[in-house]
Amino acid sequence: MAGFASPDAFSPETSALQLLPIRFERLGADRFLVGNLVGDMAEMTAGELDRLCTLDLTPGDGLYERAFEKLFVASVGQRAQQQLLALRLRSRMSFLRAATPLHLFVVTLRCEHSCPYCQVSRQSKDRVRYDMDQATASKALDIALSAPAQLIKIEFQGGEPLLNFELIQWIVLTAKERSVPLGKQLQFVIATNLALLDDEVLDFCGEHDVLFSTSLDGPRELHNKNRPRRGQNSYELAVAGIARIKERLGPDRVGALMTTTEASLDSVEEIVDEYLKQGLEGIFLRPLSPYGFAIKTKQFHKYDAQEWLQFWKRGLRYILDVNRSGRHFPEFYSALMLRRMLSDEPIGYVDLRSPAGIGLGALVYNYDGTVFASDEARMLAEMGDRSFELGNVNEHSYRDLVLSDTLVSAVAESLTQTAPQCSTCVFEPHCGADPVYHHATQGDLLGIKPLSEFCERQKGVLTHLFELLEHCPEDAAILRRWAS
Ligand code: SF4
C-alpha cells in the first residue's frame, strides 16, 4: 500500500476556495435570494447559504457547482472567476464611455391640454415668453453635439412641442448639417399628445426620420378623464394620430406611454386591451412621478408603492396570457429589468443606473436656455426648487455643465455601489441611483431607502420577475424572449 495515498488526500480542502462578493435577501421562511457582483442570482435555503458562507462545499454536492456557476466562489490562486466578473462589470458599465446620448429640447411650455397630473407647469398664453427661440436652440445644439456619445438622440418636449413646430424643423435641419463634419449619428423624437398632428408635420417627420412618442392612458373614458382639453376629445385625437402615423410613416414610428393614476388602478386589463386595439408594440406600466402638477393637484399621493405593484403584477399576468396566445407584446418595464437580469448589456435607461443618469445620460435645455440635469430636474425647478440647474446655454459649454459642482456632487453622493442599504442589496446591479426623486421626496440625494417608494417598487418588481423566471417555466420562456 506504500505507493498510494489515502482517498482523503484527493479531496480538495475547503480552504482551497474563496468567497467572492455576494449579497442576499430573505424571500421566505427558509428561502434566500443570493446574488453576485453582476446580478446573477440563485435561490438557497438557510442551510445552503450557511454552507456557502463557510465554504463548506464539496465537488459533486450540487451546491459547489452552483456556487462556481454563479461566480459566488473561486479557487484560491486562480483568477479566472475574478477576471470574468471584472469583464462583465465593465460591459455592464460601458454606458459611461458614451456620455450624454440624450438631449431634451423644451421648445415651448405652452400646452392646450390641462392634465391634473401633468409633470410640467403648462402655460397656455404668451407665445413669446414661453417659446424657445432660434438663438437659444442654436447654442443648445452646439452643446448637444459636443457630447462624447456617437449617437445623439434629440427629443422635443413641452408643454406641447407641436405648438412650436417651426423651431423643431429648424433644429432638425440644422442638427443634420452640423453633425456631418463631426461624424455623429442622430435620432429625433417628438413627445406629443398628437392633438395638433397635421399633414405638414407628417410630411416633415417622414422625410427626416423623426419618431413620435405619445401618451395613451387607456380607453376613451379614462384617457379623457386624465387628460382634459376643450372639446373633451384628447382620446379621439390621440388614437386618430397614432393611426395616421402608422399608415403614413410605418407601424414602428410611434410609441405610447401611459401614466397610472388612481383611476387606472382597477382597469389594467382594459388599458392593455386599448394598447392591443391600437396596434401598439407593447406597454410601459408607469407609476406617477412626484413632480409638477402631480404634486400641486395631490395626484401623486393617491396611491402607494404597494398599490402600484398590485396593479403592475395584475397587468403583467394579463400581458403574459396575451403573449401565450401568440402575440408578442412586452411590458417594457419588465423587459428593461429582464435585460439587466439576463444579460450584461449596458443600460441606456437614464433613471435606472448608477452612477446616476442625470447629466451623464441626458441634458435638458429649457425654453429660456437654462440647462437641467434631467426632465424631472426641470419639473422641480418649475415648482421653485432649482437644485439641479446646471447652467445656461449662453454661458456654459458641455464640459462646464457635466463638470459643474452641482452635477458632480449629485452623482457622487448618490452612488448605489457605496450607499447604505444599496451596497448590501442583492438587487443593486439591476437598480439605479435616482437623486432627483429622492431629493424631491426625502430632501436627500441618496435617499433613506427603507422609506423610499422607488426602492419598494424596485424590490417588488425584481423579486416577482425572479420568482417567475425560477418557478414558472412557461412565463419564463416569454420573459426571456422579451429580454432579447
Ligand atoms: S434602491 Fe432599494 S432595491 Fe435599489 S439597490 Fe437600493 S436598496 Fe436595493
UniProtKB/TrEMBL annotation:
Q: Which UniProt keywords apply?
A: Iron, Iron-sulfur, Metal-binding, S-adenosyl-L-methionine
- SMART domains assigned: Elp3
Q: Which Gene3D superfamilies match?
A: Aldolase class I
Q: Which InterPro entries does the annotation name?
A: Aldolase_TIM, Elp3/MiaA/NifB-like_rSAM, rSAM, rSAM_paired_HxsB, rSAM_sf, Sulphatase_maturase_rSAM
Q: Name one GO molecular function term.
A: iron-sulfur cluster binding
Q: Pfam families annotated for this entry? A: Radical_SAM
Q: Which residues form the Radical SAM core domain?
A: 97-327
Q: What's the superkingdom here?
A: Bacteria
Q: Which NCBIfam families match?
A: rSAM_paired_1
To which protein family does this belong? Answer: Belongs to the radical SAM superfamily. Anaerobic sulfatase-maturating enzyme family.
Q: What is the protein name given in its UniProt record?
A: Radical SAM core domain-containing protein
